[in-house]
Write a structure and sequence with these properties.
Blueprint: E1 12-17, H1 21-24, H2 30-50, E2 55-62, H3 89-100, E3 111-114
Parallel strand pairs: 1-2, 2-3
């Protein structure tokens, strides 16, 4: 796994996006829950496979972010139920920024829940 010219790169970071549905399931979205569970396992497998190349792989796990599937726009008046009391849109990208920063240098193969529990 080197660069196209045969040289080795200096590593990197990959952040996958999952869903709480992949950990807890949903009665009306079985395929979605299975796919998001696959994202969590894919993240762990990629972390193991890519670690020798200095590539860290992690993921973020949002819950309801306020935008129903199939909608093009976020509705700020739509209620989002969690302990924080609102959507996690900004917090999700902050989680991604943390995982690609040097502050997370010893984190690999994990799924960071950014779900407002």
């Amino acid at each position: 796994m080197g660069a196209p010219d045969g040289s080795q790169g200096s590593g990197g970071k990959i952040v996958n996006v999952g869903s709480t549905s992949g950990f807890f399931g949903r009665s009306r979205a079985v395929a979605y829950a299975a796919a998001k569970g696959g994202v969590a396992n894919l993240t762990r497998a990629m972390a193991v496979q890519l670690a020798p190349y200095n590539i860290r792989v992690n993921g973020v796990v949002p819950n309801k972010i306020g935008s129903p599937v199939g909608k093009d726009e976020f509705d700020p008046t739509r209620p989002v139920v969690n302990l924080i009391g609102g959507p996690a849109c900004r917090s999700i990208w902050r989680g991604v920024l943390f995982l690609v920063s040097g502050d997370s240098e010893f984190i690999a193969g994990n799924m960071l829940f950014v779900d407002g529990a």
